[in-house]
Amino acid sequence: MEMEGKSKVVRSAEKLVVTAMAGRDASHDAEHAFRVRDLALSLASEEGLSSDPTSDSDSLEIVELAALFHDIGDYKYMKNSVEDTSVVERFLDEEGLQESKREKILSIIKGMGFKNEVSQTAPIKFPAEFGVVQDADRLDSIGAIGIARCFTYGGSVNQILHDPNIPPRQNLSKEKYMNKDEKQTTVNHFHEKLFKLKDLMKTEAGKRRAEKRHKFMQDFLREFYEEWEGKA
Q: Domain HD: where (predicted)?
């Protein structure tokens, strides 16, 4: 996204993203946040969300800031493995955002992770801004970029690439999904999470885009297994 037309708070937010996410592996770095922001704004446009800078419920500003900040406090990168939104909260306070915007942004960030939906069976109610930000993050988790990110993260934590003797986990709970100590493989992540995301999209725009990315992953993994077994 070009600098022209950006508000002061968005420019400051971008700088914070670069600083706060510096040193991370490329699966959850600043570029991921920027891609999710761009995807979220694109989905928001398709879904008919509007911008009104004079309003305390400016949908596009809420979407943009939530998308930029969604992974700053990701539990996977916190020392105690607990999600931490304190950096984002401090930024929103210092920028003087209206309380209603602040609450919406933090609510999106705290509720959008797959871990919060992994064992859920009933559909949830959600505001439009939540849907486009979550869908954007999930779109960046699938398709060609999703594959690249998956193996990048697996390599960063020295995870096994694939082991036919370690099956994907079934009926995952939030706690089990977040357990870093349980031995797993990178390929199993496709079955435990990535292949499920297409059917968890909240917006019609997100559902449309997910179809192509989902198929790309299916084709990739089919080829992967054939090569692993020496058949291709």
A: 29-142
State how far the Cα of 7 lies from the Cα of 225, in Å rounded to an integer.
48
Checking if the pLDDT of 2 tops 50, the result is: no
Domain assignment of residue 2, yes or no: no
Structurally, the chain folds into a number of domains equal to: 1
pLDDT of 167 above 70: yes
Cα distances from 173 to residues 99, 159, 169, 176, 196, in angstroms, run: 33, 21, 10, 5, 15
Question: What's the pLDDT tens digit per position in 18-64?
Answer: 999 999 999 999 999 999 999 999 999 999 998 776 555 689 999 99
pTM over 0.90: yes
Instruction: Provide, rounded to the nearest whole percent, the portion of the chain with pLDDT above 70.
Output: 93
CATH code: domain of residue 166: 1.10.3210.50
For residues 81 and 93, give the distance between their C-alpha atoms in angstroms, rounded to a whole number. 25
For 48, the domain range is: 8-228
Instruction: Give the integer Cα–Cα distance in Å for 122 and 127.
Output: 16
**Start-to-end C-alpha separation, the chain:** 41
Specify burial of residue 87 (Cβ count, 10 A radius: 0-12, 13-18, 19+).
middle
Write the CA distances from 6 to 28, 139, 163, 202, integer angstroms. Answer: 24, 24, 47, 27
Residue 156 located in a structural domain: yes
Q: Tell me whether residue 193 is in a domain.
A: yes
Sign, CA dihedral 63-68-74-79, equals negative
